[in-house]
Amino acid sequence: MKVKVLYFAKLREKFGIENEVIELPGERAYAAAIVDLLRKRGEPWSTELALDSGNRMAVNQTLAGIVTPVQDGDEIAIFPPVTGG
Amino acid sequence: MKVKVLYFAKLREKFGIENEVIELPGERAYAAAIVDLLRKRGEPWSTELALDSGNRMAVNQTLAGIVTPVQDGDEIAIFPPVTGG
Amino acid sequence: MKIQVGESDFDPGAEISALHAGQPRVGAVASFVGLVRDLNEGDSVTTLTLEHYPAMTEKSLRAIVDEAGERWSILDATVIHRVGRLQPLDRIVFVGVASMHRGDAFAACEFIMDYLKTRAPFWKKEGTPQGERWVEARSSDETAAERWKG
Amino acid sequence: MKIQVGESDFDPGAEISALHAGQPRVGAVASFVGLVRDLNEGDSVTTLTLEHYPAMTEKSLRAIVDEAGERWSILDATVIHRVGRLQPLDRIVFVGVASMHRGDAFAACEFIMDYLKTRAPFWKKEGTPQGERWVEARSSDETAAERWKG
User: Distance between CA atoms of D112 and D95, rounded to whole angstroms?
Assistant: First the structure.
């Protein structure tokens, strides 16, 4: 399966990209699997996406948790806690 | 002692006056003494100023209770519960 | 602090701007506009006449805003209340509070409205097809004001 | 319902009017304006740049207003949020809620702001004399949003 991953704010700057398509084995996965995969890339991914980093995720433009299911074609966003308003 | 008494809203209409000066014996009194005196006038005073009528008072333009002291020259207002806003 | 009581209408946008224009410490303005509805207690309302106790009105509003300022961190506040004869759709009251952060602005604004409703000397008389009648105080307003105690 | 996200400024007075003009059932409009302050965490702020997640922003704001509408009796609501580069004194956000009675309007307006602060995909970057920095989320915002649960 292929999913599109978007980064915002500090993560976008640290990673130097706004979005990318990544490929995972299988037809379905938990959102956590994507973060696990990215974290294995080493720095700055491992630090910025550390388990205690406090980042949030959205799956298809809706706030999601690490056990939210994702499937081929989904849009996954990873970002720091929001600070609008 | 003489005090000025003002009536508002429904009380003003029922009594047919906006204000009057009334005289009480002594130099000081509780605000309740004024209402007692007015109530003795008979109708419509006795009904409109009945103990359970829910009316409010102000002494010198500040919300007051029946044990608020009043003295010569004070301005006493008697009115139904307020309904502004 | 701005307190205004009179027959003339007001401009909520201008009042909000006045609470923050040129004040870079203000991060939040909470405001409220109260309006005449065309229905009350199930009856249609064609006019609303507001009576007040002129010598006491501004004094009581000022005291309410002062109390809000003791309870919350506020930078400025405006209260405008109209009197006289109004119609459905007309504005009645404006309360605006400027503050550094939104929590103080919201709380102080709602507090001022709740206290105004139960402590400021205004009385409403409605004109309906059945004639005129004085609006009864609502116990829910007293309950709303009681919330702020203790 | 009106949801607007973009670079342009807005007119709070016009937005408030739009929430009640010609609507004689509306008795209350509670509103909030958020502004750029020139000081944050003790440092002076010269610019504020707002980034967002365009595909998600309006969707999340709409969901927040819908939830407010399930919790309180509201007649209409407007949320406007600016993005891009702002300066101290600039308006950032407007939330306005029209309702029959003030309790619903106040509660829904504050709820929408609290949820917007913790659930809508906006991020602030401050320019200070020491350089640029991303604004950290405040735990007080999370606490404010938690209040509405249960």
Answer: 7
Q: What is the mean pLDDT of residues B28-37?
A: 95
Q: Best of C10, C32, C75, C89 to disrupt the D interface by mutation (most D CBs within 10 Å)? A: C32
D82 touches chain A (CB under 8 A): no
Regarding beta strands B2-7 and B75-79, do their DSSP bridges make them parallel or antiparallel, or are they unpaired?
parallel
pLDDT score recorded for residue C150:
72
Q: Spell out which residues of chain D touch residue C109, defining contact as CB-CB under 8 Å.
A: 30, 106
| B9-36 mean pLDDT | 96
CB proximity C16 to D under 8 Å:
yes
**DSSP, res A78:** E
Contact A12, A49 (CB under 8 A): no
For A39-64, the pLDDT digits (tens) are 999 999 999 999 999 999 999 999 99
- Quick one: tokens of A5? 């991953």
Give the whole-angstrom CA distance, residue D124 versus residue A82.
8
Looking up tokens 């020259």 gives: B73
**Residue D138, C-beta contacts closer than 8 angstroms, at least 6 positions apart:** none
| ipTM over the 0.85 cut-off | yes
